[in-house]
Write a structure and sequence with these properties.
The complex is a heterotrimer of chains A (about 70), B (about 220) and C (about 240).
Chain A lengths: L11 H52 L8
Chain B lengths: L1 H14 L1 H22 L3 H23 L5 H6 L1 H7 L4 H30 L4 H28 L6 H29 L4 H30 L1
Chain C lengths: L8 H33 L13 H27 L3 H33 L7 H22 L3 H32 L15 H44 L1
The chains are: A mainly alpha (about 70), B mainly alpha (about 220), C mainly alpha (about 240).
Chain lengths: ~70, ~220, ~240
């Protein structure tokens, strides 16, 4: 194993720049996807909760009871 | 049926002559912008003429594309055309032919005049005309696919441009290349043959693709 | 074993989830291995010094951009021909990853160009074709985002992708032609017949790493797309119930 010349013969900006840009793209892609997934899961939970609530509300609405749901 | 469609589109276009003229004016204005931006030096203008004129033709063609189906979509004719027993690609071919006659031929005819502004030699002006004559069908044909795909969408002309301009690039390369070869004194024939081949391939495949795209956009 | 059940997005969703780590982890390992070979084992190039080491990311990125476009068109075509929603979703998922690799290829190509040929951008056949490929990706992505109806978006994207994939060889050929006509002094260095074994090994390892990464990321995005469409569908059904 021979340690490479870290300055890349003076071309360090270009070589390291390339790999850093690649890393930025990869990280951005993965992070934004994870974020998106989290948001979608949240919405899924909210939708499920809403469904539960609406299915527990409707019987009282149908029977005309005076119970009011707190929103 | 084909003749009817072509005739109908030509008649409708004639009633809206202003639209056609605006395409030509756009072409002329765009071409005139380049010397204003770059400088009037004759040598330089002669060398950029093929590219500039061809690019302006591409842009002008693109602007005229939404006229292809949008008006028929609005008045309901397009849906009727889809229902006829005639094969849809024949209908498409008729409309594209009419579009070419109405929107592209004027460009072909004006181009040599514009070429004079760039001090293009006289023999080359002919080549310019021929290259556009062979190349503009490609613009109408491939453009029709883009017009069909983006039917009724917001985003309009810019969206069609993004879709269609990359596909125009081979026509641009061979078309402008032919004119440039003529200026340099070499034979423009290989460029024109390749351009013609591209035109024939587009002729065979695009009406079918456009028909498919129309069905997708209208269901 | 009935594999066709996996054509349903709902059934494929958990399978995709299980698959992801099997691609993500080996991908990370291969990236490290590839970079090790590329930087510690491959020797300094005789002509270009150490700047050439950019190719270990530039070349795999370029190849991935091209492979993914074809794969995207394939999935889009299958989705359209067989009315298979999952295939269309795959195409939409691949598009963004493919575009990113193409962008990476252009940027790293520019960064390689400056020390090697003196300018950041060289209008040679390969760079120009890659740029046009990026335009094709952008067209596909723009078209799909402009259409609200998912079925129409899927099918319209399929038409565009198929038209694009047929045009790619034509575009490549015409750009080659254009380039030889306006020949500059630059000659592509990668055409040289003898490439040192460690360099080739590093490139191939990095290519494999990029493939595995792509599969993992595309599957993650696919799951997001499945979730999104399912939610939109159920909300739509609720509103119309």
């Amino acid at each position: 194993m021979n340690w490479p010349d870290l300055s890349m013969g003076g071309y360090g900006f270009f070589v390291w720049g390339s790999y850093i840009f690649a890393l930025i793209l990869i990280v951005w892609e993965v992070v934004s996807l994870k974020q998106h997934q989290k948001t979608l899961k949240q919405q899924q939970r909210q939708d499920a909760q809403q469904q539960q609530r609406s299915s527990s509300v409707s019987p009282s609405v149908l029977t005309g009871s005076t119970n009011e749901t707190t929103s | 049926m084909l003749r009817w469609i072509v005739w109908r589109d030509l008649t409708l276009a004639w009633r809206r002559r202003a639209d056609i003229l605006s395409t030509v004016f756009f072409f002329i204005i765009v071409v005139s912008l380049f010397p204003l931006g770059i400088g009037p030096e004759t040598q330089l203008l002669r060398s950029i003429a093929p590219g500039v004129i061809w690019v302006a033709a591409l842009l002008a063609s693109m602007l005229s594309l939404n006229r292809l189906f949008a008006n028929d979509l609005q008045d309901g004719t397009l849906e009727q055309l889809l229902l006829t027993p005639q094969p849809l690609f024949a209908v498409v071919f008729g409309k594209v032919l009419a579009h070419w006659i109405v929107s592209e031929i004027p460009l072909v005819l004006i181009a040599p005049l514009v070429g004079l502004q760039f001090d293009v030699p006289r023999d080359t002006l002919w080549i310019l005309l021929v290259s556009l004559l062979v190349g503009t069908p490609v613009l109408s044909l491939i453009g029709s696919v883009g017009a069909a795909l983006t039917l009724g969408l917001r985003g309009g002309g810019v969206l069609i441009s993004i879709l269609v301009l990359p596909l125009y690039i081979p026509a641009l390369i061979f078309g402008a290349g032919a004119v440039e070869a003529s200026i340099m004194g070499t034979s423009p024939a290989p460029h024109l043959y390749l351009l013609g081949a591209f035109a024939i391939v587009s002729l065979i495949f695009s009406p079918w693709a456009t028909a498919a795209a129309l069905r997708i956009s209208l269901e | 074993m009935n594999l066709y059940k996996y054509a349903s997005p709902a059934t494929f969703y958990p399978l995709a989830g299980k698959m992801i780590p099997w691609f993500a982890i080996p991908s990370a390992i291969l990236f490290i291995a590839g970079l090790y070979v590329g930087f510690f084992v491959a020797p300094t190039d005789f002509q270009q010094g150490d700047a050439y080491r950019i190719i270990f990311i530039h070349v795999p990125a370029a190849w991935m951009g091209m492979f993914l476009y074809v794969l995207m068109a394939l999935y889009a075509g299958i989705g359209w021909a067989f009315n298979a929603r999952l295939a269309s979703m795959m195409a939409s998922s691949i598009a963004i990853t493919g575009a990113m690799f193409t962008l990476l290829s252009l940027v790293t190509g520019a960064l390689w160009g400056k020390p090697t040929w003196g300018t950041y951008w060289v209008w040679d056949a390969r760079m120009t074709s890659t740029l046009i490929l990026l335009f094709l990706y952008i067209g596909f992505i723009s078209l799909q985002s402009a259409i609200d109806d998912t079925r129409r978006a899927d099918r319209a994207g399929a038409v565009l992708a198929l038209v694009g994939v047929i045009n790619v060889p034509i575009i490549y050929f015409s750009v080659q032609w254009w380039n030889t006509l306006h020949q500059g002094a630059t000659i592509r260095i990668l055409g040289k017949p003898t490439i040192a074994a460690p360099m080739l090994a590093a490139m191939l390892i990095m290519l494999a790493a990029c493939w595995l990464y792509s599969v993992a990321v595309v599957l993650i995005r696919l799951r997001c797309i499945i979730l999104e469409r399912e939610q939109n569908a159920s909300r739509f059904a609720e509103v119309n119930a």
